[in-house]
Design a protein that fits this description.
Helix content is about 50%, strand content about 10%. It has about 550 residues and is mainly α. It has a three-stranded antiparallel beta sheet. A hairpin with a 2-residue loop joins β3 and β4. The longest helix has 15 residues. The N terminus is likely disordered. It binds one RNA strand of 78 nucleotides through α4, β8, α7, α8 and β13.
Length: about 550
RNA sequence: GGCCCCAUCGUCUAGCCUGGUCCAGGACACCUCCCUUUCAAGGAGGACACAUGGGUUCGAAUCCCAUUGGGGUCACCA
C-alpha cells in the first residue's frame, strides 16, 4: 500500500465502544467531529473500540449507528450499516485488527520501548491500595521487570505465565498541544509504564487508538475532556512508533443540572428511589426477571437493561430521565433540534445566533469557538427549542412527522383513529405541542371506548357539582340542544354552544365548556372543546355525556 | 492526596485573544400583567451575573499573580 494520503485533508473520527445506544455526550462529540471534517471537505470515520472482551461480548451491538444516522450524522468510513460505511482503512472493528496491532507491538518490543510484565491483578491491586493509603497517586514502575534478563522473561512466557506488555515511558515532561485548551505540560513521572497489551492478547485502548488513528489518517482528534491525560500516553506512543501527531481538541463535558455526571445509571437511580419509596420487594409481573431484580436491589452498582427498566418504570408510573439519543426520540424530540441544542453545549457561533441547522453548523463550526467550561444539560431549554421548531412547521409537515412518530410509538392509538380524526387532532394540537409525543400523551381519552371512560373524581367534584346551577345541570339542558344538532363541525358546535352559554351562564363559556370537557374526556384538559367534540363525533360525544349524567347525576 | 484543566445571570452562552463603545448582550427558566372554554401557546413588562483579593494601567469582565470554588485523571474500561 502506498502512502500517498494527502496530508492536507482533514480526517476526524468518532470511536465509541460498541453499544446499542448513543449517549447525548457521545452524540455531541460525533456531531462536532462530523461538522469539523465535513466543513473542511474532509472525512468523518466511525470506528468501533471493542477491545474489551468482557464488555464487547456482543460485538454486533452497534445499534447506536441508527441514532447517529437519525441525527443526520453520516460517516464516510466505518462499519457497513444500511448503506453507510465501508472504506479503505478497515476493518473498523478493533477486535478484527489484532494482527495489525501485533506488528507494532513487535516493533516496540524490538526497540526496547516495551516489555513483558508479570504482576498479577491482585498484586497490582495491592500496590494501588497501598498508594491510596498513603494518599499517593499510583504509578507503575517497571524497573524490576525490566531488569529481569530476557532469558528469564522468555522462560516465563514459555511456561505460559500470564503477562501483559507495558510501554516503557522515557523520562521527561510531556506537553499536550490542544486547540481548545491551549498547551498543558505534565511533569516528568506523571505517565507511567502503562499496559498496551492485555494478558488476553488484546491491545488496550491507548495502543489501539494510536495505531488506528495513524493508519486511518486521522488528522484531528476531538474527544471529551476526560481523555485529556490519556493524550499524554498517546503522544509518547506516537513518538516511539514514529507516527504523525494529530491535532488535539478536548471538548468540555456535559453534566446533569445538579452537576453530576450524565449517566445511564441515572435511570437506575430514579427507579431505586421509586422502589424504595413504594417499599417494593418484588418486581411487578412481566417487568423484570425476579432474580435479576433481587440482585439489582442488593447491589446499587448494577444496572438494569434498558427494556426491563422501561417496563418497570411504566408499571411504577415513574418517568425515566432521557439520557440516550433514543430516549429523546421516543419522547418526541426532533433530531434537528437535538443537534442544534447539543451544539450549544460547548460551542456557539458567536453573537446572538442560537437557532441553526446542521448545514450551518458544518459551515461555521470551529475549534476556536469551543468553550472550555463544562455545560449542564438544560432539558427545559431543549423543550423550548423543540416547541419553537414544531410551531415553525407547516401543517403538512407536522401531520407527517406526528404520524410517523405515532406509527412507531403508538400504533394502537393510530389504529383507533380514522384519517379524518387524526388530521383534526393534529390541527387542534399543533401549536400546543412541545414534542411529537404530546398529542398522544394528552389525548388518550379519544381512544378509550365510550363505556370504559372513567372520570377523575376530583375534577368531577369541582366542575360538575358545587354551585347551582351546577355543571351537571348545564349538561342536562345542553344535551337536548346538542341532540338536535346535526352539523357536528367545530364551528357549528360553537354556534350552538355559545348562545347557550349566553342564555344560561351570562355568556361565560367556561361555565359550560368545562363540564362538557369533563363529560367527554374524563379530565379537565383537552384540546379546545369544540374541536374535542368534533373529533369524538356526535355519537361518541352524546354517549359520553349521557353516561356522565347518569353516572354522576 | 499528586498532576492537569476551568471560573460572566439559576442554566446555555456573547463579550476576553486585539483593555475604553459593557453601570455587560441574547436565549431558556423565573416573577408581574394582558389574552383566554381547560392545558398550553401568544403578547407586554420585570428581576437576575463579570467568584474573591491583590497588582499592571489614565482606564480591566477583558492582562498578570494569589486565594477560593468546581471538574478531570491516577485500570489488563474505553
Amino acid at each position: 500500500m502506498s502512502h500517498t494520503t494527502p496530508t492536507s485533508a482533514v480526517v476526524t473520527r468518532f470511536a465509541p465502544s460498541p453499544s446499542g445506544h448513543l449517549h447525548v455526550g457521545g452524540a455531541r462529540t460525533a456531531l462536532f467531529c462530523w461538522a469539523f471534517a465535513k466543513g473542511r471537505g474532509g472525512k468523518f470515520v466511525l470506528r468501533i473500540e471493542d477491545t474489551d472482551q468482557k464488555r464487547s461480548s456482543d460485538a454486533a451491538s452497534i445499534g447506536f449507528v441508527r441514532d447517529l444516522l437519525w441525527l443526520g450524522i453520516n460517516f464516510d468510513e466505518g462499519p457497513e450499516y444500511e448503506g453507510q460505511g465501508g472504506g479503505a482503512h478497515g476493518p473498523y472493528f478493533q477486535a478484527q485488527r489484532l494482527d495489525i496491532y501485533q506488528k507494532y507491538l513487535d516493533q516496540l518490543l524490538e526497540q526496547g520501548s516495551a516489555y513483558y510484565a508479570f504482576e498479577s491483578q491482585e498484586e497490582l491491586a495491592a500496590m494501588r491500595a497501598q498508594a491510596k493509603e498513603k494518599n499517593q497517586p499510583f504509578r507503575y514502575t517497571g524497573d524490576a521487570a525490566r531488569r529481569r534478563d530476557p532469558a528469564q522473561t522468555a522462560q516465563r512466557l514459555k511456561a505460559g505465565e500470564p503477562a501483559v506488555i507495558r510501554f516503557h515511558t522515557r523520562a521527561g515532561a510531556i506537553t499536550i498541544h490542544d486547540e481548545i485548551l491551549g498547551d498543558a505540560t505534565l511533569p516528568d513521572g506523571e505517565v507511567d509504564d502503562f499496559v498496551i497489551r492485555k494478558a488476553d492478547g488484546f491491545p488496550t485502548y491507548h495502543f489501539a487508538v494510536v495505531v488506528d488513528d495513524e493508519l486511518m489518517g486521522v488528522t484531528h482528534v476531538l474527544r471529551a475532556q476526560e481523555h485529556f491525560n490519556n493524550s499524554a500516553k498517546h503522544i509518547v506512543l506516537q513518538d516511539a512508533l514514529g507516527f504523525r501527531r494529530p491535532v488535539y481538541g478536548h471538548l468540555p463535558l456535559i453534566f446533569n443540572p445538579d452537576g453530576s455526571k450524565m449517566s445511564k445509571r441515572d435511570k437506575d437511580k430514579v427507579l431505586r428511589k421509586v422502589v424504595a419509596q413504594g417499599g417494593i420487594t418484588a418486581p411487578p409481573l412481566g417487568t423484570v426477571d425476579p432474580v435479576v431484580f433481587a440482585a439489582w436491589l442488593k447491589d446499587k452498582n448494577t444496572q438494569l437493561e434498558i427494556e426491563p427498566a422501561q417496563r418497570l418504570a411504566e408499571s411504577l408510573g415513574a418517568e425515566l430521565p432521557e439520557i440516550n439519543v433514543d430516549d429523546f426520540r421516543r419522547s418526541g424530540y426532533l433530531p434537528e433540534v437535538i443537534c442544534n441544542f447539543l451544539s450549544l453545549n460547548g460551542w456557539s457561533p458567536g453573537g446572538d445566533v442560537e437557532k441553526f441547522d446542521n448545514a450551518f453548523l458544518q459551515a461555521n463550526f470551529d475549534l476556536s469557538r469551543v468553550v472550555k467550561t463544562a455545560a449542564k444539560f438544560d432539558r427545559l431549554k431543549l423543550l423550548a427549542f423543540n416547541l419553537h421548531a414544531i410551531q415553525g412547521m407547516s401543517r403538512e409537515e407536522f401531520v407527517r412527522r406526528t404520524r410517523a412518530h405515532g406509527a412507531l410509538m403508538h400504533p394502537e392509538f393510530m389504529a383507533k383513529l380514522t384519517p379524518e380524526q387524526f388530521l383534526a387532532l393534529c390541527d387542534a394540537s399543533h401549536e400546543r405541542s412541545k414534542t411529537l409525543e404530546d398529542l398522544f400523551r394528552t389525548n388518550g381519552f379519544i381512544t378509550i371506548a365510550d363505556d370504559a371512560l372513567e372520570w377523575d373524581a376530583k375534577v368531577v367534584a369541582k366542575v360538575l357539582r358545587g354551585d347551582s346551577p351546577c355543571g351537571l345541570d348545564h349538561l342536562r339542558s345542553l344535551r337536548v340542544v346538542l341532540r338536535d344538532c346535526d352539523d357536528w363541525s367545530s364551528s357549528s358546535l360553537e354556534g350552538v354552544i355559545k348562545p347557550f352559554a349566553d342564555t344560561h351562564c351570562e355568556g361565560n363559556v367556561g361555565k359550560i365548556a368545562q363540564p362538557l370537557r369533563v363529560a367527554v374526556c374524563g379530565g379537565s384538559v383537552s384540546p379546545p372543546i369544540f374541536d374535542t367534540l368534533m373529533i369524538l363525533g356526535k355519537a361518541s360525544s352524546m354517549r359520553r355525556i349521557d353516561r356522565c349524567i347518569s353516572t354522576h347525576g
